[in-house]
Amino acid sequence: MKHRLVAADMDGTFLDGRGGIPEGFWDLYPRLARAGIVFVPASGRQLATLQDLFGPLGQDLNLIAENGTVVYSEGEVVSTTPMRARSAHAIIDAAQAAPGRMEMVICTPTMGYVNSPDILDEVSTYYHRVSTVADLHEAVDDCVIKVALYSAEDAETVAAPLLRAAAPEERAVVSGKHWVDVMNPEANKGRALTQLARALGVEQRNTVAFGDYLNDLEMLRAAGTSYAMSNAHPLLKEAADRIAPPNTEAGVLTVLESMLA
User: Fold this and answer.
1) What DSSP assignment string belongs to 200-217?
2) Where are the alpha helices (DSSP H) in 154-202?
3) 257: part of which helix (H) or strand (E)?
4) Element spanning 221, H or E
5) pLDDT per residue over 69-86, tens digit each?
6) Where in this chain does the entry annotate a coiled-coil region (predicted)?
7) What CATH number was assigned to the domain covering residues 85-183?
8) In Å, how far from its chain's centre is CA 103?
């Protein structure tokens, strides 16, 4: 089977244990291009953050950002999937009334809005364009694509149930031990992969996906061939066609090298 599009989650999958691009990628990327393989970062991170991270590759990038709510191809945003404004307002109210520390980022395709300096250290890795507002409700409009919530407690057992109850029309996806993303239920990385493949003229059976956490599940199911990292959540390992070495050992690069061999 000829692989033509490779989508890789970032944190815990493609990036190394320190959150950096693994050594060897910059030399590998042009070899993938010469072989006719499009490499696509697919992340819960902000579009601007991915553009900064992969800036050396030039403007003709293909990116899946904000857990699939933003799809970017060759210099322009080709798809966004906004959530309901009323849901965003309900999430803000529920999180601010909840016990324990919960901080939020109200996400639009171009900006993330926060209302506390306490969260800036947590979000700076994932959101490079951030604006502080006095009241998060003021940042909510029809362009909101996601509410990202940081919980000091476990996201899967504490924060996610709270958010699902507050915004039943949306979908709450656990994206890390302390992070939950709430989005339009139609939005996910799998749908974004399908949209991007169609835009690039790539058949779904010729796509490959790598992931490690629950927000990658639909992407693995949508891909022609799927890899869960050896450090992945158990549910991803069950869903994947194959297991890749851990991100701390440049597992994605190892598999890509084998594709080119």
Assistant:
1) HT--GGGEEEEE-SGGGH
2) 160-166, 189-200
3) helix 251-260
4) helix 217-222
5) 999 998 899 999 999 999
6) none
7) 3.30.1240.10
8) 19
- How far, in Å, CA of 128 to CA of 124, rounded? 6
183 in Cβ contact with 83 (< 8 Å): yes
- The type of residue at 183 is M
Going from N- to C-terminal start, the domains of the chain cover 4-80+187-260, 85-183
Exposed / middle / buried, residue 187 (Cβ in 10 Å: 0-12, 13-18, 19+): buried
- For the chain, how many helices (H) and strands (E)? 9, 14
191 vs 68: CA distance, rounded Å: 7
Q: Give 172's strand partners.
A: 182
SS3 7: strand
- Mention every residue, 6+ apart, whose C-beta is less than 8 A from residue 110: 47, 48, 129
- Tell me, yes or no, if the two domains 4-80+187-260 and 85-183 fold the same way: no
Using one digit for the tens of pLDDT, what is the confidence trace for 12-44? 999 999 999 999 999 999 999 999 999 999 999
Nearest to residue 152, comparing CAs of 172, 177, 132, 169? 177
- Please tell me the distance from the alpha carbon of residue 190 to that of residue 173, in angstroms, as a whole number: 13
Residue 209's DSSP bridge partners are 7, 226
Note the residue count of the chain: 261
Q: Which fold has domain 4-80+187-260?
A: Rossmann fold (3.40.50)
